[in-house]
Amino acid sequence: MSHASQEGRAPSGALWLAAWVTVFALALPLAGDGAAAPAANAEPPIRIPSDVAWTKDTLAVISSGDAFHGLLLARRCSHCHGEDGFSAVGTFPNLAGLDRLSFWKQMQDFRSGKRTSALMQTIAEGLSQRDAADLAAYYALLPTASDPLEKRAFPQPMQDPSGATGAIRLIVFGDGQRGIPPCQSCHGPVSYIQGAPPLAAQNGSYLAEQLDHFSNGSRTNDINVRMRSIAMQLTAEEKTALSEYYGAGLGPGANSR
Question: Which of 48, 65, 95, 119 has the most Cβ atoms closer than 10 angstroms to its Cβ?
Answer without folding.
Answer: 95
